[in-house]
Amino acid sequence: MFADCGSGLPLGLKLKRLGAQADDLDILLLAVKRRVSVPARDNVIGEADTAAQVRILLVGTTCSYKRKEDGNRSILSFQHPGDFCDLHRYIVPDVKSVIGVQALTDCTIAIIEYRDMDKLLSRPTLASALWRASKLEAVIYRERLSSMGAGTALKRVAHLLCEQLARLEAVGIHAPQLPFSQIDVADAAGLSIVHVNRTIQTLRSLNVLSKAGRAIEVVDRKQLARIAEFDGRYLSMPELALKWAVQIEDMRN
Amino acid sequence: MFADCGSGLPLGLKLKRLGAQADDLDILLLAVKRRVSVPARDNVIGEADTAAQVRILLVGTTCSYKRKEDGNRSILSFQHPGDFCDLHRYIVPDVKSVIGVQALTDCTIAIIEYRDMDKLLSRPTLASALWRASKLEAVIYRERLSSMGAGTALKRVAHLLCEQLARLEAVGIHAPQLPFSQIDVADAAGLSIVHVNRTIQTLRSLNVLSKAGRAIEVVDRKQLARIAEFDGRYLSMPELALKWAVQIEDMRN
DNA sequence: CGTGCTGTTGAGGACGATCAATGACGGTGG
DNA sequence: CCACCGTCATTGATCGTCCTCAACAGCACG
């Protein structure tokens, strides 16, 4: 949509949040020798990809997924602008895991070669920022695990939407429409498409999601967070902590 | 049980696997000024703990958990000897998340003060080993997420048992009995205690788990991995990759 | 103007939750 | 040595959430 976001703004916000220095962003972007566009539904990274390069999502939304034995896609996480798509392969190359990354919208990807990454990581501030990003990734997985394990479909879907909304806002994207389909939600929440559809209709009838249009559009964030019992503070977003924390306070009323 | 394991053997194995150097272990252990014993069922770390120290599990098994609004415990991950219990709090202190760590067996914990951690991390080999540990943690969460989201209770429980068995073996612990109860499995798999019990009885009737005694004792690992569709290679354990990978090969017959 | 993808609706059935009660085991103290 | 207690394991019955199958409608695309 807003193609001018390719400047790396979200990435800059994210690095700053992780404690990197101002010039770390410039140096990182300098190492990007190539950018590619990927249309929606295409693979950004194949399930058997072994290229010696790290990809960073600049524009759009992707998901990392795994194929189940029955052929269905299981979405493990979403990536938003500023997120690395396959940093794990660079850091822990031993890990064998057939995971692909697919574009959910039209995307722009930055590519950095491994040999250039080596140089980048000699900067301690950047290295520790990326370490924090890894820990944060683990925390996000952990939180999703806790929301998946228990609770009704309504709560699980609401939690998923809250997480994505908060992460988008954390990188400066404040659109109420979420950039993925009900099918994507189903594959990510571990629910059937049919049931996700009914769940979303429930959320619409509660005036939490917009009733107009096909897109998943959040119109009552506070209520959504209440349903999800979502406490956004785990995402470590100082600039947003207040916003989401306030909602938690409200819940106690 | 084997109190002489307090020497740090599992921790050494783990660090070695993560690419640390031989003397990194010694230096890490030198920073441990205090060790504590925690009896089974006690909290290792309270849900509101803010002490400026990092804990490493030396002996026993712990879980990190979260209380759900209904008061029930939801287990997010297990820790085995050599694992850090709360490294994330040191690295990403902003993250607010009410997570506790509970001893499932009698445990021995090593404690390192934050100020000593700062010194330790000036060693690049140790810092990058801990970075890898963080990524590996994220990978483990991701894999659990993929097994939780889909599949029947039988598969989910089997996957959980496989993961713990493999991780225990990775640090040199080769006992067939798993160090936790059916209740713990239920809280970790997001299933009711009753249904976990029935699932385990199914596994026993399939001669996958031992029929004698209360403990969860794996007698047919190959079959268990087949049921779980478990591919242990994601754990990045070179010394065990062969073992578990072979089973995957067998599955194709 | 068809073709594909996504969204929507209905009906039936399965898996797992919940409630309730009992059994088995180990530890503790009389 | 035995009675008691707490924790964990086990069993049966009922109920509800969510899955599956199947069909159709709406929209965007060439």
Spell out the blueprint of helices and strands.
2 copies of one chain form a homodimer.
Chain A: H1 9-17, H2 22-30, E1 34-38, E2 43-45, E3 53-59, E4 62-67, E5 73-79, H3 87-91, E6 100-103, E7 107-113, H4 114-120, H5 124-149, H6 153-170, E8 177-178, H7 182-189, H8 193-205, E9 216-217, H9 221-228, H10 238-251
Helix pairs in contact in A: 6-7, 6-8, 6-9, 7-8
The first copy, chain A, binds a DNA duplex (30 and 30 nucleotides) through helix 8.
List keywords for this structure.
homodimer; 253 residues; three-stranded antiparallel sheet; 10 helices; disordered N terminus; DNA-binding
Task: Characterise the protein shown here.
A four-stranded antiparallel β-sheet of chain A has the order 2-6-4-5. In chain A, strands 1-7-3 form a three-stranded antiparallel β-sheet. Helices cover 46% and strands 17% of the residues of chain A. Chain A contains ten helices and nine strands. With 253 residues, chain A is of the alpha+beta class. In chain A, strand 4 (62-67) and strand 5 (73-79) form a beta hairpin. Chains A and B meet through strand 5, helix 3 and helix 5 of A and strand 5, helix 3 and helix 5 of B. Chain A binds a DNA duplex (30 and 30 nucleotides) through residues 41, 152-153, 181-183, 191-195, 197-198, 200-201, 214.
